[in-house]
Here is the input.
Amino acid sequence: MTADAALAGLLPRRARREGRLEVPHEAHATLGHVVQAAGIPLTEVGTLLLDGSAAGPATRPPDGSAVHVPPVVRPQPVPAGGFLLDVHLGSLARGLRLLGLDVSWSPDADDATLAARSGDEDRVLLTADRGLLLRRSVRHGALVRAAGADAQLQDVLDRFRPELAPLTRCTACGGVLRPAAPGEVAGEVPEGTRRSYAEFSRCTACSRVYWRGAHSRRIEEFLARWAGASPPRSG
Ligand SMILES: [Zn+2]
Here is the structure.
């Protein structure tokens, strides 16, 4: 089996440099099984090649056949339900919510629950844990391989190219924000803040109040940097 450079890092250490691995398998094993047995979740692969021809993951490769594994084609569509993040990606969840994306994240969801919810709620499961993506029950998933919330955010935006709507969602719960009049939030915002800002909003799910402050400038700067650094959208 050979893997493109983008995926070679997922192979066992001894096979990484050449991106080539012999995978002994039972006669009835499917292509998908063989690829996952090499440590590469199917969420990370494009169209598999079996002896040079495109083949689906349910194909049973004959003994001695050559399998080539290309990376997933970017950009990928986001499933209708949006994103679902594992417990370790709280900072990334916050970043994606700041940009207005539909993100489900809770600090106590276990792996089995997350895997099931990716299908039940039609959400793409983002995780740095490839063992989680190797679970059969994961329907949509993406491996987050970058370190640090900023690099992870860049990678997710590059992989999915979702439509952004900055400052339209609550970073705490992911709920949608609605505009709120200054008079309405008077008792909930420090007086200095109320004098300095004219635009307020409230989360329709948890009632938290937001105002346009320093962090909206940081988002605009981030988006400008990202737009400058990313290749033009194809397709
Ligand atoms: Zn909220």
Remarks:
- DSSP finds eight helices and eleven strands in the chain.
